[in-house]
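Please check this.
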Amino acid sequence: MNKQRLTITALTLAVLTGCQSSPSPPAVELPAQNEQAVTTTPKAKAVTTTPKAQTEIATTPSQQKLSCEPLRYQCHLMQPEQDISESTAKDISFALNIATHGYYSAAVIRLEKIKSQNVYEQAIVDYHLANMNMKRIGEDAHALDYALKAIDSESLPAEEYKSAQLLAIKLLVKHGWFELGEEKSLNYLAYIGESFDFDIFEIFDQIAQQKKDQTRYELLLDIQTMIDGEAQNKAAQRVLDEIKTRIAKQYADQIQFEKHIKPTDKLKNKTCQTLTYQCHSQRAKKVLPANIKQAIDTATKQQQDNNAMAAKETLESIKTNSDFETAMINRKLAYLYSDVKLHELSVRHASAAINSGALNAEDHRYQMRLEVFGLYLLGEFEQAKQKIEAYLNYIEKASDTYLDGVLLKIAKQQGDQRFFKYLQDKTLQNPKRAEIIQSYIDFGYFGEIKEKKKSADTPRSYKPVVIFSKEYDYPIEAAKQGITGSVTLEFDLNAKGEPVNIRVIEASPEGYFEQAGINALEQWRYKVNLDDTGNVIEGTGIQVQFGWNLGSGQ
């Protein structure tokens, strides 16, 4: 009985003081950061979902609601856990159990099917979805999205709230969103009421390493190995103060920057004098003649069989009778060249299809996106940004989840921190946040794309460049006899970049490899430049040598 009275007395004091007895947090909060109080309504059952014991389902007695404003870990711990329905508890328990056997995708499917009864239940489900997706390859974007949803709900229990924050920070830093990761780290430290935390300072280590900031990296290591706790906290606080000052300056710069951001103009002209998707889609859809459609289908099959050259020749052999038919051939060639990573040619054909104005609305839209994609991969970042603006005007929207990811990547590649931060903030407020982040991550798989710089000092090269070649055959008779050798061929190029007038300059030995070399060269293609009269610049007297060696391949 005395123990119960002591418990009730302590709880009453906590309510009256609003958890004022909890330790004061370090002064690391960001400017204009409004933290809302989290209040909960106890019922009958609760799910215990701590990271170390996720599969346990437990019940707790109803407790009196506590006020924690701003939200702090020590006070948050004293919050009563809310009720969760029996069916939801059962589904969560089942999902966590199958996840312990490594079936994370199955666990995610089970969790996504749960129909939550309230905000608290949804927060718990989102928390577990974040953890499950974190363990699935290629699902970082969805893991981050679920973690942020769970955090933003302000309905998680203290341990899960703390864990979700740490998970979000790690994912942000993993994909190079360093400043945002540092900002969230300050919020995390303010929440737990500490100036030093090993997890956070290990994350700061990662940022310093990726930024190649050796001085900061060594300082962070020194702090983590300090034995004197007081000295460690003081040194850590100096690091946090520097980060806080830098982020505060970024906020001030960002406010000024956003004042000068011009929103994308939404074109409202429904007469299609300025083409928009809405009015474009109202036009009667054009249909290809059966023979041309059949030829394009043949080219598609050849492309699927990894015979890009045959597909190209099929498409270029089609005789067209209208701008629409020509545009559809260019559309198909744009996809074909993109598939074989000849992005300059892909952009050229996509632009031709777009500029004709003859495509149907849906094809027009996708060709605009393909054009942006090619320009980005060519390092033509400024052109890509202009095309994105044209695309947004065409679809009459302020953003596009796919192209927002491209814009983020461009800003990152250009080192434009203010624009990058502006786009990050927009992304985190977007309902389709996961798709944008995934697009940003996907573009990272192409590696570091270097921005193409225009230089007046570097003259343009007009020499033909090989854009397609393939392995050539070893003549059967030569292979049977173990004969090795080489052939030197000379040729000219026509306006399509095809070798013509092929002649043998030298063959060693004679009579074995000449025809094999000619057969191979006939399939090569070059990118050529034409003069004002339509002739190929530097397109005559080109030489190439083919060699055959049984020991080391061709």
